[in-house]
Every structure is written in C-alpha cells, then in structure tokens.
Amino acid sequence: MSDSYDVIVIGGGPAGYPAAIRAAQHGLKVACIDDWQNYDGSRSFGGTCLNAGCIPSKALLESSELFHRAHEEFGVHGIKTGGVELDLAAMQKRKAGIVTQLTGGIGQLFKANKVSGMQGRGRFLGDGKVEFTDPDGKQQTLQAKHVILAAGSQPIELKSVPFDGKQVVDSWGALEFDTVPGKLGVIGAGVIGLELGSVWKRLGSEVVILEAMDTFLPMADAQIARDAQRQFKKQGLDIRLGAKVQGAKTGKSGVTLSYEDKDGTHDLKVDKVIVCVGRKPCSAGLLAEGTGVETDERGFVKVDEECRTGVQNTWAVGDLVRGPMLAHKATEEGVMVADLIAGKIAEVNYEVIPSVIYTAPEIAWVGKTEAQAKEAGIDYKVGTFPFAPNGRAKAMEQAAGMVKLIANKRDDSLIGAHVIGPMAGELISELVVAMEFQASIEDLQRTIHAHPTLAEAIHEAALAADGKALHGINK
Ligand code: FAD
Ligand code: NAD
User: Fold this and answer.
1) For position 472, what pLDDT does the model report?
2) Which domains does the chain have, with CATH numbers?
3) CA 191 to centroid of ligand 2, rounded, Å
4) Which of 39, 73, 243, 421 gives 20 to 30 Å between its CA and that of 81?
5) Which residue of 49, 51, 191, 240 sits with most ligand 2 atoms within 8 Å of its CB, as the best mutation to test the pocket?
6) How far does the centroid of ligand 1 lie from the alpha carbon of residue 171, in Å?
7) Residue 184: CB within 6 Å of ligand 1?
8) Marked catalytic residue, from 77, 451, 459, 471
9) What is the 3-state secondary structure (H, E, C) of the chain?
10) Over the stretch 64-87, which tens digit does the pLDDT of each residue have?
11) Are strands 362-367 and 168-169 parallel, antiparallel or unpaired?
12) Mutate to test the pocket of ligand 1, among 54, 147, 169 (most ligand atoms within 8 A of CB)
C-alpha cells in the first residue's frame, strides 16, 4: 500500500466515513483512519453513532417501548398478554446484532468504493502529513493532498461524580447494563438523559433525573417543552430542575448523590448513575504542535461555513466543530467537504437541520422556536393542531401531543416547525423538505395529505395558522 493519498480522513464516524466514500466516488484515492475500540477489544468503523450512540440507543428505545406497551397498553386494544417477561440478555443481544450488522456494512462500503480503511490512531502533523499508529504501536507517516479531521466527541466527565465504569457510567455504559437498576440516577435532562432515562424506566427502574438548569429542554419551543415535561411526569420520570450535583459517594450498596436546589441540600441514594451532561470534541492529541489548525476555548476545531480550518487543504467536520452534535449534520458536512475537494458546488443549510428526541412521545423540530422568531423581530403567525382528534393517532392509541407551525406573516413562509407526538421524528421530514424548498403555509394547506394519517395534523396546523382548521377550534 502506497502511503500517499488524495484524501486522508481521520475518524470513521458519521462525519468521516461518508466523507471518505463520497471522495472515493469522485475517483480520489482515499484512506479513512479510525481508532474506535469496543469493550471486548474488537474494532469497528461507525464512530459513536453506530457503536455507542444513535443506533444502540434506538434499538433499546424500540424494545423497551414494546415491553412497556405489552405490559401497560395492549389491554386497551383487547389483547390479553398474560405474564409479559423481560429477557434483558436477549434484548441486548438484538441490539448488539444490529450494531454489528451496520458497522460491518461500512467495511463492505469501503471495499466497494476502494477506500482504504485503516484501524489505528491518526495525528495531523501539518502540511498534508498524518502520523498513523496501528494497534500494535507501529507508526508510519502518510501524505495527502487533503486532510479531513473528523475525530468526533466524547462524554464530559464531572469532577464531582467521576466515572467508575460500574456504578457511575457514561451513555455507552448505560447502553450496556446487564440488569435493570432498581433506582437509577441520571445527571442531565438533555437528549441522552431523557432517552436513556426512558429506556430504563420502561424496563422497570425508578428514575430520578437531576438537571442543573431551571428550564426544561431550553432548546425546544417552550410550549412543546411544557407539554413534554407534563407527559414525562405522567409517565413517572422524576425530573428535578435547578438541581446542582455536588458530589457522589459510592459504596457496595449503591451511590449517594448530594445535590443542592432552591430548597437546600439533599442526598439521593441510587443503584447506578448515568452522567450525561454534554460531550466535548476529541481534539486533544489529534493535532501535533504547529499545524496551524486552531481550536476554541472548549476544544472545537475552528472552521468556516464550508468547514475549512484556515490551513490550506485541511478541513474539519462533525462533532469536532461548532454546531449541533447530530449524526445527520456530521454526515452532510463530510459529504460537502468531499464534494468541495472534488471541485463541485456544495453547501450545508445550517438553518434547516432537524432535531429529534426519541422518547415517547417523540419530540422533533426544525427552524425557529416561537421565542427565536420573537427575538428576531419577525412578525409571525402560529398554527397549532393537537393529535387528539386525529383518526390515525386515535387508532394507534397515541393521541397525546401536537403540531406547531410558525410562519412569517410578511411572505407566509414557514420558519419553524415543532411536533410532539407519535412518530414525530418521521413527520418532521415533510416540514424539513417544506423549509428547504421555502414553502409557504399556503403550500402546506394546498398539499393533499392521505387519510387517515398522522400527517393530517400537519395539514390542519397549516390551516389553523390562518384560522381555517376543519377539525379543531382555531386560535
Ligand atoms: P463520532 O461518531 O464520535 O466519530 C468519530 C470517530 O473518530 C470515532 O470512531 C473515534 O474513535 C475516531 N477518532 C477520534 N480521534 C481519532 C484519532 N486521533 N485517530 C483515529 N480515529 C479517531 N445523533 C443523532 O443525530 N441522532 C441520534 O439519535 C443520536 N443519538 C445519540 C445517542 C447517544 C447515546 C450519543 C452518545 C450520541 C447520539 N447522537 C445522535 C450524536 C451522534 O452520535 C454524533 O453527533 C455523531 O456520532 C458525530 O459524528 P462524528 O463522526 O463527528 O463523530
Ligand atoms: P445535552 O447538551 O443534550 O444535555 C446535557 C444536559 O445536562 C443539559 O440540560 C445541561 O443543562 C445539563 N447539565 C450540565 N451540567 C450539569 C450538571 N453539573 N448537573 C446537572 N445537569 C447538568 O447533552 P447530552 O444529553 O449529554 O447529549 C450530548 C449530545 O449528543 C447532544 O448534543 C445531543 O445533540 C447528542 N445526542 C443526540 C440525540 C438525538 O439526536 N436524538 C440523542 C442523544 C445524544
């Protein structure tokens, strides 16, 4: 294998591997270096997303939701289930099987596209040079015309509650529990806290979520966040806001967390703790001295809108750089950079990146919240429609939640869309396409939505924006 390439990608997650594939599709000679190592010592491409993030979490969310429904909700449909039992080992095996299939698929895609997949560590030396260290410690220096940095992110550790890999774990550890914790403490009511808290609650844990901020889900539209908080409370998720964790004492029988809130200091005894207070970029050790690539005070590699680092032919994408830490954002950046390297026109529309929280109900949004529209001084109108009168949602016995659309009054354009309810993560795609095509509320009103579908709630919300909803009270 020659050690000279058109493109070397450091990182084989959802930012790096699609960048490598697209660059190879352009006829470039590409290597993708990745150092992911699993708990059992095996190595696989796919980064956090496929190995320890999006995919395994969604597998467990699906299984745990089915378990919960079989237990609590099938009776309403007239289905008698008798004794529903949990086989956690089988559930975890199914999850692991999905992960292995998908990560294995990347190897096949690399082969089909003639990408050299190299498992080991990469370090950017500057001037197109990359130091590669294989798992045995053998080093070589590779040369490339372009280098794409795609090293991703890792969990933030709290000094006051350090990970021990057994009782105090990060999100990856929380995906691997082999027994259901009796009482589970979750630090951080962000996306991971809510998704993984939901998984273990559905499987039988008593879950307490401690959140430092006073506001619940501040990144979501406030009306949707209020609805979500109400529904999670109803499910029995104990979410304590304004709770500042000060320390943890671990012992044989569990962990005692101490935290402070407006009422004073408290102790909380739990069996296990998940710390999910955000993630930080993996830039430490990635860059040799003097490469010229700059990082900000939090370690994010500085880039412009096109993911150029400021050092010629050196790019950075995904969780390693500014913007939401989302797999689809990472992929779009990787693909954009590969296209730009090949001299094609490419861009990422940062205004239209959907977010989805895969709880039940799901929460999904794109574009501006109502508060952001107000802050931007936009003269806006709002159309909301609940799932309660929606025939499909009723048939599914999942009629909680709503659709909320925000449009600019001046030109009727859709500027924000928010869904809380069944399949919100799927429903949001229509609204992402609408925003990408700069659709107006009238466009949505005139678009025929099949009956009976959940998407009819989108249609009705668009009608409601102009006081024309057919199946609800317009306000
Ligand atoms: P990563 O996926 O972190 O990949 C980076 C890769 O680079 C890793 O394999 C790493 O080992 C490797 N690497 C790092 N340094 C080096 C080096 N020096 N040399 C070689 N290799 C290196 N996002 C969503 O959009 N939807 C979801 O549902 C979702 N669920 C999530 C659930 C959990 C529990 C977590 C933790 C995250 C989730 N995310 C989700 C976020 C998503 O996983 C990340 O946004 C995404 O993985 C970022 O992709 P990336 O390629 O930038 O980084
Ligand atoms: P997050 O930023 O979503 O939430 C972290 C939460 O922890 C925040 O609410 C924060 O206020 C709180 N917090 C911070 N310090 C705290 C402290 N000391 N005590 C108590 N609370 C504290 O981060 P996350 O949940 O760790 O997720 C990391 C990233 O992974 C996110 O950026 C997210 O986009 C991504 N992710 C996405 C999905 C998805 O798309 N469905 C799923 C999981 C993770």
Assistant:
1) 84
2) 4-155+280-348 (3.50.50.60), 168-277 (3.50.50.60), 352-464 (3.30.390.30)
3) 5
4) 421
5) 191
6) 12
7) no
8) 451
9) CCCEEEEEEECCCCCHHHHHHHHHHCCCCEEEEECCECCCCCECCCHHHHHHCHHHHHHHHHHHHHHHHHHHCHHHHCCCCCCCCCCHHHHHHHHHHHHHHHHHHHHHHHHHHCEEEEECEEEEEECCEEEEECCCCCEEEEEEEEEEECCCEEECCECCECCCCCCEECHHHHCCCCCCCCEEEEECCCHHHHHHHHHHHHCCCEEEEECCCCCCCCCCCHHHHHHHHHHHHHHCCEEECCCEEEEEEEECCEEEEEEEECCEEEEEEECEEEECCCEEECCCCCECCCCCCCECCCCCECCCCCCECCCCCEEECHHHCCCCCCHHHHHHHHHHHHHHHCCCCCCCCCCCCCEEECCCCEEEEEECCHHHHHHCCCCEEEEEEECCCCHHHHHCCCCCCEEEEEEECCCCEEEEEEEEECCHHHHHHHHHHHHHCCCEHHHHHHCCCCCCCCCHHHHHHHHHCCCCCCCCCCC
10) 999 999 999 999 999 998 889 999
11) unpaired
12) 54
Residue of the CA atom closest to atom 1 of ligand 1? 152
Residue 204 in contact with ligand 2 by CB distance below 6 A: no
Nearest of 9, 13, 58 to residue 319 by alpha carbon: 13
Dist. CA 49 → ligand 1 center (Å): 5
Q: Look up 451 and say whether it is catalytic.
A: yes
**Ligand 2 pocket, 196 CB below 6 A?**
no
Write down the pLDDT at residue 474: 67
Which ligand 2 atom sits closest to the C-alpha of 213? 11
Residue type, 234: K
User: What's residue 2's pLDDT?
Assistant: 57
Is the C-beta atom of 325 inside 6 A of ligand 2? Answer: yes
**Is there an atom of ligand 2 within 6 Å of 276 CB?**
yes
pTM: 0.98
Q: What pLDDT does residue 1 have?
A: 46
pLDDT < 50 stretches in the chain: 1
Nearest CA to ligand 2 atom 24: 278
At 253 the pLDDT is: 87
Distance between first and last Cα of the chain? 67
